[in-house]
Design goal:
The structure is a single chain. The chain is an alpha/beta fold. Helices cover 42% and strands 16% of the residues. It has twelve helices and eleven strands. Helix 1 packs parallel to helix 2 and helix 5 runs antiparallel to helix 7.
Length: 316
């Protein structure tokens, strides 16, 4: 086993897609430069920015690249972070890879904590950790990975891009990033990865800070991108169907639960014309005896309450 302290440690690659973030990308890159782990390779994929983002990245590279900290700049003309991540993955040569978003900040010991966890369990496929989300002047920490990781991801999207590292071969073998999903593409990708039943190491410390922006991929509302969320959920159902498992019915029920929660979010945003058909679909997808659980989750969430799955999840 390689010593974690010697000068021949394996490299970690971090892929950062960026689009029109001239005012934010330097903050993100500074946090990568501040990582205590070396060697570190950063791949920035400009997604056809129309502002000064590319110039800012090139200038930052010129002033910060050094031995054992390399920066590679790529371009992807197809719009969407998933296409940019897919391009970055093509150029990864390290055994392990992380993906990070240009809005966000990686805490200084993130990569060293991840690689130390792998040092102890080298056969593991994934290292995952919670992040702190900053939104509307408030912040909260996401769920720590535990128990049934696939079910946890279906409910809480635990494998968000800022919250895990994966062996490059594992991600490539499951098909990598699919550019046709402009939202929840990390959720959809994570399902395909976890359906392979990888070994996951859970780190219980938050290792990144996520800052929601009004113009980000997810944005600050759901109704503004209606139809796109549903497309990702449909793809998750298709991936579940393609696997030979004994728990597919329960997994489909959890996806239907997610549809009901999305419908409730539409209702909270005063779009009943979007909420009602999706809610009806979610009810129709589950067995009759499970429908009261879906009804409860929908109305509970529509009223602004959280944590419906902790109440109904075991019965789905």
């Amino acid at each position: 086993m390689k010593s974690f302290e010697n000068s021949h440690r394996e490299s970690m690659t971090v892929v950062v897609p960026v689009y029109n973030r001239a005012s934010l990308i330097v903050r993100c890159l500074d946090s990568l430069r501040s990582q205590s782990y070396r060697p570190l390779h950063v791949i920035v994929v400009d997604n056809a920015s129309t502002d000064d983002t590319l110039s800012a990245v090139k200038k930052w590279k010129d002033g910060n690249e050094e031995e054992r900290f390399s920066v590679q700049i790529l371009s992807e003309s197809l719009p969407g972070a998933a296409y940019a991540r897919r391009k970055g993955l093509e150029y990864v040569t390290s055994e392990k890879v992380m993906f990070f978003d240009s809005d966000d900040v990686m805490r200084p010991d993130c990569v060293s904590t991840v690689m130390s966890a792998w040092e102890k369990r080298p056969d593991a496929d994934i290292v995952a950790w919670p992040v702190v989300i900053h939104r509307d002047g408030r912040r909260h920490m996401t769920h720590t990975v535990k128990g049934n990781v696939l079910e946890g991801h279906l409910v809480h999207a635990m494998l968000r891009t800022q919250g895990y590292a994966v062996k490059t071969a594992v991600l490539r073998e499951c098909g990598g990033w699919r550019g046709e999903f402009p939202v929840w593409n990390d959720f959809e990708t994570g399902v395909r990865v976890l359906l392979r039943e990888p070994e996951v190491i859970a780190v219980n410390l938050p290792l990144a800070d996520v800052y929601h922006q009004p113009e980000s991929i997810t944005g600050l509302s759901f109704s503004g991108k209606h139809g796109k969320w549903e497309k990702s959920l449909d793809a998750v159902d298709e991936s579940i169907d393609s696997c030979v498992r004994t728990d597919t019915s329960r997994l489909h029920n959890i996806v239907s639960y997610r549809r009901a929660i999305l419908a409730a979010d539409y209702a909270k945003e005063r779009h009943p014309e979007l909420a009602q058909p999706l809610y009806v679909q979610a009810l129709a997808e589950v067995p009759r005896k499970k429908r009261p659980l879906i009804r409860f989750a929908y109305h509970w969430t529509r009223l602004g309450m959280r944590g419906a799955f902790s109440i109904v999840g075991r019965l789905l």
